[in-house]
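Risk mitigation, structural track. In case the binding assays with zinc ion fail to produce interpretable data, a predicted complex structure has been prepared as a fallback.
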Amino acid sequence: MAEAAAVLLRDVTLRDGLQDEDPIPTEQKLVIFEALVAAGVRELELTSFVRPDRVPALADAEAMCAATVGHDIVRWGLVLNQQGASRALDAGLTHLQFVISVSDTHSRENAGRTTADAVEALAEVCQLACPEAQVEVTFATTFGCPYEHRVDPDRVVDLATLAVTAGVSGVNLADTIGTAIPSEVKSLVIRVASEVTPQVGIHLHDTRGLGVANALAALEGGARRLDAAVGGLGGCPFAPGASGNVALEDLAHACEEAGLDTGLSVPAVITAAETACGSVGRTVASHVGVAGPRFTL
Ligand code: ZN
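Fallback model:
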């Protein structure tokens, strides 16, 4: 039998999943980390190097890096500027993720700077970090913005081109508010992969129930990596189960059942989801977390 095609799922629980929650102790995050590793996770977002007063849940960034050295796992740290990049590099990370909002209004509301200023800051971070470390760009509001609503795909392609010129190793397209539909996802992934770089990842939120469908569409379009958080954690903390990231167990289950090798154990991902959700006082509300895999024998 031919070997199953592989797909890389990156877990974002410890960063995106926890950033809006009440802070939990570093030790508890390490329990989640171990559960993710045990489930077969090979790449994950570990933390953010942002101002601790802005994101208190991730104030232990350096401690998390120090405590997770030595695992055979790719650890990503989110940075927004040179200062954050210096901290991440000093903490020993070699994979930095830089966020730019495609929507100028979202950029100003969320990061206090224009999209153009963010592109400039990205170039500075690449100069500082590369080639010793990789810098990837995540484009927030790629498929829709809470302020500007529809986002022009041409703008995404133009920004991705600027980011690759600045030196990024890849482009991550983020559906920040969960407005994408599969046909849009597939066509934009195809465009960015063919016009800018084949290193395209996708970051989806399941706000309108299209997270898994969008992920499968992204794979059809040639996406190399999918982001997800166990239990669907993340997003708006005031709408549990509705607005979080697409759940890793839902995505792993769909991919495995479609014959793709994720390297993950779906039952172990569900266990990790229970651990992570329990840590922040939530119950697992993902589809597969509730119903279990479709066939168990
Ligand atoms: Zn997210």
